[in-house]
Structure prediction request, 634 residues.
Amino acid sequence: MSATTADTTSAPTADPDAEPRRYRHRKYDRREAIAGYLFISPWIVGFLVFTLGAMIYSLVISFTHYNLATGVANPAGFDNYTQLLNDPKVATSLSNTLFYAVMAVPAEIVFALFLAMLLNRVGRGAGIFRTIYYLPKMTPAVATASVFLLLLNGNTGAINKALALIGIEGPQWLIDPNWVKPSIVIMTLWGVSGTMVIFLAALKNVPQDLYEVSSIDGAGPVRQFFNITLPMISPAVFFNVIVLTIAALQVFDQAYLLFWRDQTNYSPDSSLFYGVYLFQQAFQQFNFGFAAAMAWLLFVIIMIISLIQVKVSNRLVYYESEN
Amino acid sequence: MSVTTTRVPAVTALEGGTRRSSTLRPSRWYRPRTVIGKVILWIVLLGFMCLFLYPFVWLLAASFKPRGEVFDNALIPKTWVPQNYVEVWNQLPLINWAVNSILIALIAATLVAVSSSVVAFGFAYFKFPGRTLLFGLVLATMMLPGAVTMVPQYLIWKGLGLVGTWVPLFGMNLFGSAFYIFLQRQFFLGLPRELFEAARLDGASYWRMFWRIAMPLAVPSFVIVFLFEFQAAWNNLQASLIYLNGGTPDQFTVPLGIAYAMTKFSPTNGGHGDYQYVMVASLLVTLPMLALFAFGQRYFIEGVATQGRKG
Prediction:
């Protein structure tokens, strides 16, 4: 639709195909540029309204007390931001979330890389394992949560029964405040296969010659891992770290389903994640101003963490230049 | 080179940006050479396979157990209760949830796959001032946490009077989505430009070039986008909670419905702890996703693997 308009609104100048040389002095063909803008216009509209517009809107709301019923936003100055400091649940949920991220991200990276390296060593047959390992990723979060709710049961759950077999008394995973976050890490690790597939693709791209040359030089598998594999796949590691960190800081589904779905139920404070508290403030308490301020705080935190990761990666990540 | 290279034509094009010297062979780093090494490797892999499959088998078994035996962890039920499925059918509007979710997912996936393709073609084929900057902006939005725009987007939909309808669950898909735009653009960049020049000489419009030449060739990556978004829409709990939670249960989507069932049968909420029913429902909403994967696994794997390549 957009492009047909592009053609009818074509430049007042002659058909560029007839005399392409005439436009040499210009960097861009006007007709083509207009068509290009028309093709990308859906994204531009969406960006201006639902991303940039929404961000500015949320910044404005964060300085108001927003009344959902009347739609009236009374100016609130920095009230919502001082409330961020005064509401102890903000600090609790933030530290829970950061603690979870610090646990989950390295665990996911190490486990996914381990699995990918195992799969990379099998020749034929890797495909079938990869398929099966990927199945948890296809499972809806609601199904994962309802199964693990029972598997992680402290008294009769399969995980504690298995631990009992090797003489370990398992914790009350979903009740003991100290074990709430490890429980969610376990669920996350079950679905680690997406990260694994990214690593696997990166590992396939490491040239075999490097290993052959280095083994002639007498390098063992450990040295090869740290001196060849890790540097060569460092862009994938970096990508996964960034993506998993952003996901971990926004963790919602599992925490909500296991602990906060049922508002009559008691849940330990250690299961209150930032994403859950933000959701409660916005869509259960309807404190939109405060929720917007919370969202901006999260945004700033994620930006700072990502920036640090980019800075660190500039020193550690190896990008192979074209040829 | 990815394992799936030979099977998905899209791959070669997708990898256009990261092509390496053809003299390099793919890595087979330290493939075990001894029999013992191979046996150990296979045992470890089979062990992990059991770990990954266990919850599925457990779920399947529990869905056939009577209430008192759900927690016995037996992978073959001692007492078979297929009536659980009938009970769930009678007590939960599962079919409504499935129909709602399928329709929403179909609309969401179709919209985003088409709109992202249009935008991607704009970025891939045309030269215009600010193209690099704008594409950088597209990539930057991938880093934007969804929580930041959650509240204002709700207020926008509320302002339009669309809260409680399906529209907010797929409305933003009209405008393309960053990762899918990236994916489709990679594909279009891999198409030879002469293909289009010839069509231009024949007088084809830009839209015709896109729709008649580029799109038919882009079917594989279109399928990747479609499947990804279908899965994402099927699983999207938060959006359903925000936009549909006010309705009656038969208006729920699958994730909202299962969350509702978890509460309905929970002993803390007046239920009897009929977890076998929750298991039945959970299993039934997982099966379509497993079927989707069975049909399109190479697309899923290729789509995920591509993510890491934008480095």
Summary: The beta strands of chain A are 64-66, 73-75. Chain A has two domains: 2-61, 82-316. The two ends of chain A are 41 Å apart (CA to CA). The longest helix of chain A spans residues 88-121.
